[in-house]
Design a protein that fits this description.
Elements: H1 4-14, H2 20-27, H3 31-40, H4 44-47, H5 64-73, H6 79-89, H7 99-113, E1 130-137, E2 144-145, E3 148-149, E4 153-159, E5 165-170, H8 175-189, E6 195-198, H9 216-225, E7 228-231, H10 241-261, E8 265-266, H11 269-284, H12 288-297, E9 310-315, E10 321-324, E11 327-330, E12 339-344, E13 348-353, E14 356-362, E15 370-371, H13 374-383, H14 401-414, H15 416-432, H16 435-447, H17 454-462, H18 481-494
Parallel strand pairs: 1-6, 2-8, 6-7, 11-15
Antiparallel strand pairs: 1-4, 2-3, 4-5, 9-12, 10-11, 12-13, 13-14
Helix pairs in contact: 1-2, 2-3, 13-15, 14-15, 14-16, 15-16, 15-17, 16-17
């Protein structure tokens, strides 16, 4: 059988040799065959007939209309499910070995007559025109801070033309986290793109039916930096494809770097954030040429940052608490009945009264949580000790495990009523003097299995007498060679 390479050689030799017979001999074919391909001007592979006929009977021809009808009405139906249904309908007619044949038949039908599939359209970006951002969960990396799992998200920002990226650690997909992360990225970049595209975040995008696409706070942020806001369609993350792809690649790079580091534990959050910053610098190192193109055409930053908080008015209830974002926080009893302003940041809440900042509260995640500071209510509880027994937020009034143990011991020693009073005196002492010193003194009494005398605790705390430190036990490393000697001794005895 003549190959394509022989015919190509023949075509070259025809123009060099004096006769066709000589060229055919050198190309390794007969004169007749050489004349044939010379006249056709085609290669052997181009002359082969297309195999479009069946070589064997279709085993599923009889039942295929039934299967096709099901495929038309149920796009997600799998070929294996259909095949098993056929086996039940026609016992003994179809064998397990025919599954692959049926799967190929279904695959071919879907390609030729099945429903349309979604396709993606490659985008061409201009320098300084587009940026995208989104939140991504980092839990899969199993990062710990001081041995404690660090559950967090990352606000991820990407320039579409150069793929320059950066990020900010956060803990919720709130507007405050979005504002902080976006502004950090823009000020680090040193300019503003024309468009900013984000996911359908509730922190930036209103629900369907609202005449305004974006929330008022996000519109204010966009106006301050003079960029045009864009969003993707619901359940269409591929429209934010640049940042979605960078999510995957970033987490993979971080995971590899953690493996090289030899540990996923960090001494502090600051150390972890420094590690991430170094990762971004490494990833962006190869994008400097395209980044320079972007920097030339970026818009100028405003004179100052936009405010990173939302402000809401709150009425301090008779319980000495306020409700912010469906969570409960305590304030000092002096503010009961007053109206305060709460400035909501990404990780904290500032409370302002009469143009003065009166407290800073940790921002709770989720809903229906509560944060009660015993220092805010202890002055009133000491006067009304009976209210402590069934206080709704009683569990928040145990600053440490030592306080909790002391509370249980006091109730055992003096009874529930007197135990409550004595424990509240300890809390008042911690608020007035030093929580750390009270905690250490309680630890000493508990470790000595001594009755807790509130008067003695008060005397020691006011005198600033620190109890002895916890006894440190040092265990010398075991010399494994001792086990080798033991085994050698056993072998001698057995021999």
């Amino acid at each position: 059988m003549v190959k394509d390479s022989q015919v190509r050689m023949l075509m070259r030799l025809i123009h060099r040799e004096k006769t066709l017979e000589t060229a055919a001999a050198k190309a390794g074919m007969s004169d007749k065959t050489a004349r044939k391909y010379r006249d056709l001007e085609k290669l052997p592979s181009q002359c082969r007939a297309i195999h479009d006929w069946k070589t064997r009977a279709d085993a599923f021809e009889e039942d295929w209309p039934w299967a096709e009808e099901l495929l038309k009405t149920n796009a997600g139906l799998e070929a294996k499910t259909l095949f098993e249904a056929l086996q039940r309908e026609r016992p003994g007619q179809y064998q397990d070995g025919q599954l692959r044949t049926f799967q190929r038949r279904v695959k071919r039908w879907r390609a030729l007559a099945g429903p349309d599939k979604e396709i993606f359209f490659a985008q061409v970006y201009q320098p300084g025109q587009w940026c995208e951002s989104d939140f991504t969960h980092m839990g899969s990396l199993a990062v710990t801070i001081g041995g404690v799992p660090f559950a967090h998200l990352l606000y991820h920002f990407v320039l579409c033309f150069s793929n320059w990226e950066t990020g900010t650690v956060c803990f919720s997909e709130s507007y405050e986290s979005l504002s902080l992360g976006l502004q950090n990225a823009l000020w680090k970049l040193g300019g503003v793109t024309q468009y900013h595209r984000t996911d359908n975040l509730t922190s930036a995008v209103n629900r369907i039916g609202n005449p305004e696409t974006f929330t008022a706070h996000y519109r204010g942020l966009a106006n301050h930096y003079d960029f045009e806001s864009r969003k993707i369609q619901p359940r269409s993350p591929q429209e934010n494809g640049d940042v979605e792809q960078r999510h995957y690649r970033l987490k993979k790079a971080v995971d590899q770097a953690l493996m090289l580091r030899g540990s996923r534990d960090f001494a502090s959050r600051a150390d972890y954030e420094k590690f991430l910053e170094q990762m971004f610098e490494q990833l962006d190192a190869g994008r400097q040429e395209r980044l320079r193109e972007e920097l030339k055409v970026l818009r100028r930053l405003p004179a100052r940052r936009h405010q990173d908080f939302r402000e809401v008015d709150c009425q301090v209830g008779l319980f000495g608490t306020i409700r912010v974002l469906k969570n409960t926080y305590s304030l000092h009893s002096r503010l009961a009945g007053e109206c305060v302003k709460a400035r909501i940041y990404a990780e904290q809440i500032e409370v302002w009264y009469a143009q003065r900042k009166v407290d800073v509260l940790p921002r709770l995640r989720g809903k229906n949580g509560h944060w009660i500071n015993y220092r805010h209510v202890i002055d009133r509880l000491v006067r009304k000790p009976g209210a402590f027994e069934n206080y709704r937020y009683k569990d928040d009034l145990f600053p440490t495990s030592q306080f909790r143990i002391a509370y249980d011991l006091l109730r055992e020693q003096a009874g529930p009523k007197q135990g409550n009073k004595q424990y509240l005196k300890l809390l008042a002492l911690a608020a007035q003097e030093s929580e750390t010193l009270v905690n250490e003194t309680l630890r000493f009494f508990i470790s000595q299995a001594s009755p807790i005398d509130v008067g003695v605790v008060e005397e020691r705390v006011k005198a600033r007498l620190r109890p002895p430190a916890v006894t440190e036990i040092e265990i010398e490393p075991v010399d494994l060679r001792l086990y080798d000697q033991f085994l050698e001794h056993e072998e001698v005895l057995l021999s």
